[in-house]
Amino acid sequence: MLFDTAHILGILLIILNQTSARECDTPLAPEQYVGTPFDHALPRSASSEVTFFKIKDPTGEFLCDSEDARADLSLLNYMSLNKDGERPDPKKLMRAVIAVHGWNRDPWNYHAALLLALAKAEAQDPAKSLGTVAVIAPYFPNGDDKGIGYPWDEDGESVADRAYSPALVWWASAWSAGAVNNYPPETKTVSSFAVLDQIVQYFGNLERFPNMRQIIVAGHSLGGQTVQRYVAVGKTRQELGVTVPVDYWIGDPNSFVWLNETRPFPVDACSDFDNYREGFTGYEAYGAEHTGQPMNYNLELVSQGSEAIIKNFQDKPVHWARATRDLGDHPDDGCGPYTQGKDRNERFFAFIRQFPPSCTSQSAEACDTVDFVDASHDAPALFADESGLARLFHDNFYGRGQYAPDYGHPRQMGFDDPRPDGGRLGEPLLGADEGVYAGQMKHRGCWSDVDRAQTERTLSELVYDGPENTRAFCTATCAESWFKIAAVSGSRCYCGNQLDRQAVEVPPSSCTTKCPGDAAQVCGGDTRLNVFGQDAFV
Ligand SMILES: *[C@@H]1O[C@H](CO)[C@@H](O)[C@H](O)[C@H]1NC(C)=O
User: Fold this and answer.
1) Range of the domain at 515
2) Where is the WSC domain (predicted)?
3) Does the C-beta of 512 come closer than 6 Å to ligand 1?
4) Are residues 458 and 313 in the same domain?
């Protein structure tokens, strides 16, 4: 039997629910300052207050009845105050900077670091101040934050009793990928991406903020991963009904959601390389094993496939910040990230090689930038760098489309300079070596070798392993035996006539090991080779 009574009742209930959502007289509106406060023990931050943002159930199921506890959803966040320690005048605000914290879930640190950077921007131009720029750092807590970030009653009989507050909480780090919340347990409908949407819509409301000119959604580290994924699947500002430009700042993510199934590195050793969060396989199921609820965010877009997702990503202005001393990796994310590169640095260059940042649009708003910063994995350093000040505070401040060119030289690879600095065009790339070596070999860049993704040697012929290794000695040794290609890695020298099919060119910053025979030269790196050849390899 196709329809039993329970089915029909269920369908009726769904219809009734949808009808009531649509016919809502006074729908709950997402709004800063009117969320229901709850107890917490989080640190205070100077020039800011802890506020509670009312979040609307994005499914609309609990939209109408504010008496219904299931509609009472509250997001704690850090919000800037003006120089008098008061809430900023909405009419004076020209910019909103929304910053997503990292793995440690410490929005107060990000907020404080952004306020320090804003003070620096104000010293450069007094128009940018706590009076004109709103800085908001939302809090995406998880189960480790019980009793600290939100109330928790250990003695409660049910999960609902224990998680009795309206605080939105996510499972582990699932907020970094748009999963729905875990608590309050009666209303598991709120994707972290819907939260970002609602904050963007709030600040993009010109009735409330008539002089708002620019919204920035920023994130570093796991926050950078969050923003990168949010750019990929996130609704456009047009879909959100926002006319204010929305730009995205992404600093040093550990891994990316790859926009299609083609990976730069071999996938042979990683059968689930395309699983969401690193790809889009299983997007809808993401998080469901922990919350019991599947993803509900922008399924329409994801179901259209990679071309639609790539377009969604590339239509948005993205400002990349790459700390050049951050060659780190967060090794607990499975094998997927290694099919993108061996560390944060390589994954970044591989991503922008495959999905190039562009500045081709007529509108300055749609212009991507790529900034290099001399820093380690350090959000405050990136925020306070000249590039951070430009992207976060100065660029397009008056809505006139003024953006600074890309910061950080030397550049590394040909595709990493979407908004070049005219005064520095033609400067050599990092690691450039114009030398002509024995056998007419020239430097052909830094390349991968056997690592956590690659299983075959890039050049199989190891001709020596010794303290005399230099670029000149290795190329001469290979040329003597009529090889066309030479490669150095530490004390090792390899020869061959063809690179293995698994070999991938990586950024020059991946080759950092000094040659044992000449400390002024670089000889590859850990699982990385500087390659020399008569011909260039494509
Ligand atoms: C993925 O995107 C890249 C760059 O646009 C393209 O070269 C490649 O063919 C695409 N792969 C698939 C499977 O569509």
Assistant:
1) 436-533
2) 440-535
3) no
4) no
